[in-house]
């Protein structure tokens, strides 16, 4: 299993925890039970293999840190999604941005550019191109605003696309 696959599983767990309001530890225990995980294998190739100990530690750490710091992370998303309320943003885009910002803020072993690139690439599998551009714009704004860092040219939003341009999605 790649780090990208483990990251995507963490994003899905974060999405599920927010949607169900279930305790993240209980959710992960149930999710990774052999019986449940086996049913997922047949439904989605993402679950083709069970995470090993290192991957499980990463998934658990990312998911728990994201949930523990959700209000702070959501504050950053609201700040850089200028004029957008969280409830108007795609729930998958929120889950993706939460994990990326969590990696940037709390996981020093993950390079910032990798967290953003992976988030944008993963969001392409869930959302429309305009939402992917929105995610890229919010994360780029976060990096500029909080760290004074810009992304390499190919990672910046397309000219004219900003977080404010993204249509409301559910």
Helix-strand layout with pairing:
Layout: H1 3-20, H2 24-31, H3 34-43, H4 53-68, H5 70-80, H6 91-106, H7 112-124, H8 129-147
Helix pairs in contact: 1-2, 1-4, 1-6, 4-6, 5-6, 5-8, 6-7, 6-8, 7-8
**Spans with pLDDT under 50 lasting ≥5 residues?**
153-170
Number of individual domains: 2
Helix share bin: 55-70%
* CATH level 3 topology of the largest domain: N-utilizing Substance Protein B Homolog, Chain A
Q: By CATH's scheme, which homologous superfamily of the largest domain applies?
A: NusB-like
CATH class of the largest domain: Mainly Alpha
Which CATH-level-2 architecture of the largest domain?
Orthogonal Bundle
Element string (H = helix, E = strand):
HHHHHHHH
Write a concise keyword list for the protein shown above.
170 residues; mainly alpha; N-utilizing Substance Protein B Homolog, Chain A; 65% helix; 0% strand; disordered C terminus
In short:
The chain has 170 residues and is mainly α.
How would you characterize the overall build of this protein?
This protein has 170 residues and is an all-alpha fold. It has two domains: 66 residues; 96 residues, N-utilizing Substance Protein B Homolog, Chain A. Helices cover 65% and strands 0% of the residues. The chain contains eight helices and no strands. The longest helix has 19 residues. The protein is globular. The two termini are 30 Å apart.
């Amino acid at each position: 299993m790649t780090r990208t696959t483990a990251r995507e599983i963490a994003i899905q767990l974060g999405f599920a925890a927010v949607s169900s309001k279930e305790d993240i530890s209980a959710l992960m225990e149930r999710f990774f039970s052999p019986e449940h995980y086996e049913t997922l294998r047949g439904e989605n190739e993402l679950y083709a293999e069970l995470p090993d100990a290192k991957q499980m530690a990463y998934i658990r750490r990312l998911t728990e840190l994201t949930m523990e710091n959700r209000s702070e992370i959501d504050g950053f998303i609201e700040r850089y999604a200028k004029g957008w309320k969280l409830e108007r943003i795609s729930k998958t885009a929120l889950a993706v941005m939460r994990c990326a910002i969590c990696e940037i803020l709390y996981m020093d072993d993950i390079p910032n550019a990798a967290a953003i690139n992976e988030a944008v690439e993963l969001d392409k599998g869930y959302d429309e191109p305009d939402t992917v551009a929105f995610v890229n714009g919010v994360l780029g704004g976060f990096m500029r605003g909080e760290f004074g860092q810009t992304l390499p040219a190919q990672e910046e939003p397309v000219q004219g696309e900003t977080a404010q341009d993204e249509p409301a999605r559910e």
